[in-house]
Structures are given as structure tokens and as C-alpha cells.
Specification:
Blueprint: H1 8-11, E1 12-15, E2 24-26, H2 36-40, E3 46-49, E4 52-55, H3 59-62, H4 68-72, E5 78-80, E6 88-91
The protein binds iron/sulfur cluster (SF4) (2 copies).
One iron/sulfur cluster is lined by residues 40-43, 45, 59, 63-69, 80.
Length: 94
């Protein structure tokens, strides 16, 4: 089967003005290092090191706001809320 590659960066853009705030939070005490958050993040913003997930420091500028990491985490180690109004991702098409 042919591999399909989408360049998500062409489909979304970020509003450059305004402070998003911390719209993803992580509680390491609840994390068991399963790595599912890293598996589902299309921008590769999660990794697992020493048995705990780690979110990229650049997530505020790169995150797609899909909330997949929050949805997949069965341990409630990740909390997600949309960035402050007027900031964050804009979907260009679709
Ligand atoms: S999905 Fe949740 S429990 Fe699993 S590594 Fe990510 S944060 Fe930790
Ligand atoms: S909300 Fe989506 S793009 Fe952002 S860190 Fe979670 S899985 Fe990755």
C-alpha cells in the first residue's frame, strides 16, 4: 500500500500575537511511561525518557491542538484545554 504523507504545517497556521498560556499540563506522578502520547502526536512533541513522558518545550509554537495526547492517556497524566481566545492554531482549509 502506498504511504500517504500530509504536511500539516501547510494546513494550519498559528496566530502570532497573544500569549496562549499553558494549555497542556502534565502530571508525572500519574505517568507510567507507556508512550502512547508519543505514538499519537503527529508533531512528535512527546517523548519518553527514564520511564516518564516529556513534552517539548516548544509545544506552544508547534502543537496542533488536536488533544490526541490527552484523549489517549488512560492515566490522566495529561490535561488539555484550548489556548486563550484569539491565540493558537487556525485551520486554513477544510
Ligand atoms: S500516555 Fe499518559 S501514561 Fe502514557 S507515557 Fe503518555 S503521559 Fe505517560
Ligand atoms: S494536542 Fe495533539 S499536537 Fe498537541 S501535543 Fe497533544 S497530540 Fe501533539
Amino acid at each position: 500500500m502506498e504511504e500517504i504523507k500530509l504536511d500539516i504545517k501547510k494546513l494550519v497556521s498559528r496566530v502570532s500575537s497573544g500569549e496562549t498560556g499553558d494549555f497542556i499540563s502534565f502530571d508525572p506522578q500519574n505517568c507510567n511511561g507507556c508512550g502512547k502520547c508519543a505514538d499519537v502526536c503527529s508533531f512528535g512533541l512527546w517523548s519518553v525518557k527514564d520511564g516518564k513522558a516529556k513534552l517539548s518545550k516548544r509545544y506552544k509554537e508547534l502543537c496542533l491542538e488536536c488533544a490526541a495526547c490527552w484523549e489517549i492517556c488512560a492515566r490522566e497524566a495529561i490535561d488539555f484545554s484550548y489556548p486563550a481566545g484569539g491565540t493558537g492554531v487556525v485551520i486554513k482549509y477544510g
